[in-house]
Amino acid sequence: MAVILVVDDDKHFRGLIANLLEDWGHQTIEADDGSSAKDVLEKSKVDLIFSDNHMPQLSGLALVNWVRNHYDKIVNTSTPFILATAYTTLVTEEQAFQAGANEYLAKPIDQDKLQNVIKKYIAV
Fold first, then answer.
1. How far apart are CA 124 and CA 117, in angstroms?
2. How do residues 49-70 score in pLDDT, each as one tens digit?
3. CA 120 to CA 124: how far, in whole Å?
4. Which stretches of 59-110 are DSSP H helices?
5. CA torsion sign, 100 to 102 to 105 to 111?
6. What structural domains does the chain harbor?
């Protein structure tokens, strides 16, 4: 069982993703924006991060930058990071990968695709 941090300012969507991951046997921690996610990561180790991009206070791109430059050094590993957005563009996708995201998914999220992506990074 993996511990997955789910970050999204949309409470309904965040809950749907968390429930889906829990149905697949994972434990989830929820955060409502990137700033709250940083607070969680300063206290907890997670195996994977699933984050929305467009959020108040701290975007998903800013969060992935923080994870790569701070959190990963503390836990001494590269934490898989899935960035999701309803506003997909080639520029944003390129920025996501340059920042260090492992995956970039468009909303609405296809459940099969998400499950396959999770399996790439988490042993089942």
1. 12
2. 999 999 988 999 999 999 999 9
3. 10
4. 60-66, 72-75, 90-99
5. negative
6. 3-121 (3.40.50.2300)
For residue 83, the cross-strand partners are 51, 104
How many CB atoms are located within 10 Å of the residue 76 CB?
A: 6
Dihedral sign from CA coordinates of 46, 99, 97, 113: positive
Which among 24, 76, 74 has a CA at the least distance from the CA of 50?
A: 24
Q: Give the global pTM.
A: 0.94
Report the residue count for the chain.
Answer: 124
Half-sphere exposure of 124 (CA within 13 A, CB side): 11
Q: Are 97 and 104 in contact (CB under 8 A)?
A: yes
The neighbour count for residue 83, using CB atoms within 10 Å, is 27
Nearest Cα neighbor of 124 from 19, 13, 41, 47 is: 47
